[in-house]
Specification:
By secondary structure, this protein is α/β, with parallel strands linked by helices. The protein is built from 27 helices and 14 strands. It is about 50% helix and about 10% strand.
Length: about 600
């Protein structure tokens, strides 16, 4: 049977079905933290923060080693591979599929929601019931660090969504308001008094059970909770359900909002009704790190209960903005039962991006296909139609690679649980939560190389692996592209890849960053000629004086050009009057300058393009 780990309640470890004694205090907190990051190295700095917070003692690293030693004694057994490894300045815990209750809960909940969306409520109820059964009646201990506490908050949010979907499936299957279902929903609204779908489900179950008085009192309790905490009245779904109960209408089925997922196919063929689109693509590339960023995005998305929310991610080419946005959208999927849209607005490569009217029309087609309504006469009408379709619904719009604010403005209605997640090179929203994405930390970049190239090449050639990470400047796109060489055959190794990347003639082409940088370059306008001259700069800080000397431009023009580079994410401030331009960006500028001078892109400045 091996090991099994339980963290959805008191921390427990079993070996071959026999309980093991888990060391109390910080060793247990370390175990939980590593379990929540299973399979990925957790840097020592992050572990220090999780276990000691801001009051980190001087002996923290030594204490960590001691705690890790206690865990190895708990987890390891003769003749079996070690579970806990010291790796890349941190610790990595290996957990097999099916061993961790939190991972099993996530898997069962995801499969259960998918079954409901696919119109299989019986299978969905079975899967979700198993998922909910993994939670102990005792909530997980709150005595953990900030990142671990955030992870448990997300798990509780997933449990809340799973409870509601499970109850909706039970009602779909004809549950007459049994005591077990009523007890689950009573506990649920007590724990989550601001979730209107939960109140609606409880009212429905009570009405099914013939308890009209209880249903009315439940509505009144919902009103008190929403008014007392948020200062708002119940939404139209809950209000209409209350009217049905007061009219002594036939015992209702599941509230319309909660039926949306299971009736996806029926709604999709209605000629004049909004459908439930599910457009998020499945990401197959490895995704490593970004846990703090993921938590921030996910929390911002699901916090939009009654008011729509916009969240924006920006950063230089290759930092993994799209991958992060899609991962966050997938993890927040349950919060948007009315649909998820995904549009690539073309801002990641040079070209003509779709105009705002085309973007709004594309959203309209996704939400309202097959309609015989005339096309909108202009952008204002198109956006108004989008807002009407999204009003009081919970739809997630992922607008990837936006080029300007006009592409994404005016799409969200005044009320409802919709969310707009935007990625772009530069900030395009000023009144929304914004996250600037930087290159990966060194440990996470090495973990991504390991995930793409494999464990053995990295373990066999650690110095070459570190060099590859450095030459790729810890950019996920560059790392994935460059490490693709290793799949071409045994004649490629990390040592050879590091040698190729060290040669500036080939580096830009091997990382695949050139076409992506082109989309940033085209935004420079009058600063473009000065940027090209910076290709002659030596590695190191860049100043306005150096820029003026290289370009022949007046000092003020050079300073303004550097400001434009910062805005386009091609340079980064490095102190008063100083700027940092990465080597890959510098090589791209040199390649442009060579083209301008009539040089051959396959010559000295850009020969790597022909070798890829």
């Amino acid at each position: 049977m091996g090991l099994s780990f339980e963290i959805l309640g008191p921390v427990r470890v079993q070996r071959d079905g026999q309980p093991q004694r888990v060391p109390a205090g910080r060793p247990a907190a370390l175990l939980v933290t590593l379990l929540l990051h299973a399979g990925a190295p957790v840097p020592v700095e992050r572990l220090r923060e999780e276990l000691w917070g801001r009051c980190t003692p001087a002996s923290a690293v030594a204490n960590l080693r001691s705690h890790a030693s206690q865990l190895r004694h708990l987890l390891d057994s003769p003749g079996r591979p070690a579970r806990l490894h010291a790796e890349h300045g941190g610790y990595l815990l290996r957990v097999e599929p099916g061993e961790l209750d939190a991972a099993e809960f996530e898997r069962l909940a995801t499969e259960g929601h998918a079954a409901r969306i696919g119109g299989e409520p019986e299978l969905a109820a079975t899967l979700l019931g198993r998922a909910l059964g993994l939670w102990s009646s005792t909530d997980p201990s709150p005595a953990y660090g900030p990142a671990t506490a955030d992870a448990f908050d997300r798990l509780r949010e997933r449990r809340a969504a799973a409870r509601e979907t499970y109850a909706a499936c039970r009602l779909d299957l004809g549950d007459p308001g049994t005591p077990a279902l009523l007890a689950l929903l009573h506990d649920h609204v007590t724990e989550h008094p601001l979730r209107e779908p939960a109140w609606a489900l409880l009212m429905t179950a009570l009405h099914r059970a013939g308890d009209q008085t209880g249903a009315v009192r439940t509505y009144q309790a919902a009103c008190r909770a929403l008014d007392g905490e948020l200062g708002v009245a119940p939404g139209p779904e809950l209000t209409e359900l209350y009217r049905e109960v007061r009219r002594h209408a036939p015992r209702p089925a599941v509230p319309a909002r909660r039926r949306a997922a299971s009736h996806t196919r029926d709604r999709a063929v209605e000629p004049h009704g909004p459908r439930v689109p599910h457009e998020l693509p499945c990401r197959t590339a490895p995704f490593v790190g970004r846990r703090a960023e993921l938590a921030r995005l996910r929390d911002a998305l699901v916090d939009g209960r009654r008011q729509p929310v916009t969240v924006a991610v920006f950063g230089m080419a290759g930092t993994g903005k799209s991958a992060l946005a899609l991962r966050a959208a997938a993890e927040a999927l349950d919060a948007f039962p009315d649909g998820q849209l995904h549009l690539d607005l073309g801002g990641s490569v040079a070209g003509t991006p779709p105009p705002p009217l085309q973007v709004a029309a594309r959203v309209l087609r996704a939400l309202h296909p097959g309609t015989d309504e005339p096309a909108p006469s202009g952008i204002a009408e198109a956006r108004a139609r989008v807002r009407s379709l999204l009003f009081d619904r919970r739809v997630l719009l992922v607008l990837d690679n936006a080029t300007d604010a006009a592409q994404v403005d005016g799409l969200l209605p005044v009320r409802g649980g919709c969310a707009l997640l935007v990625t772009s090179r530069t900030p395009i929203t000023s009144d929304a939560p914004t996250l600037r994405l930087k290159p990966l930390p060194a440990a996470d970049a090495l973990a991504l190389l390991r995930a793409t190239a494999g464990d053995r090449p990295v373990d066999d050639e650690p110095e070459a692996a570190s060099a590859v990470v450095s030459f790729c400047e810890r950019l996920p796109l560059a790392l994935r592209t460059a490490s693709g060489r290793l799949t071409e055959g045994p004649h490629w190794s990390l040592s050879r890849l590091a040698r190729v990347l060290r040669d500036e003639r080939y580096r830009l082409a091997e990382t695949g960053l050139g076409p992506r940088l082109g989309a940033s370059y085209r935004r420079l306008g009058a600063a473009a000629p000065i940027f090209r001259r910076l290709g002659r700069a030596h590695p190191g800080p860049v100043t306005a004086e150096l820029t003026a000397a290289l370009s022949g431009a007046p000092p003020e023009d050079a300073a303004r050009a550097l400001d434009c580079l910062v805005a386009a994410q091609l340079a980064e401030p490095a102190g008063p009057g100083r700027f940092h331009i990465g080597d890959l960006v510098r090589l791209y500028a040199a390649e442009l300058a060579a083209d301008e001078a009539g040089g051959d892109r396959n010559g000295q400045a850009g020969a790597g393009a022909s070798w890829r």
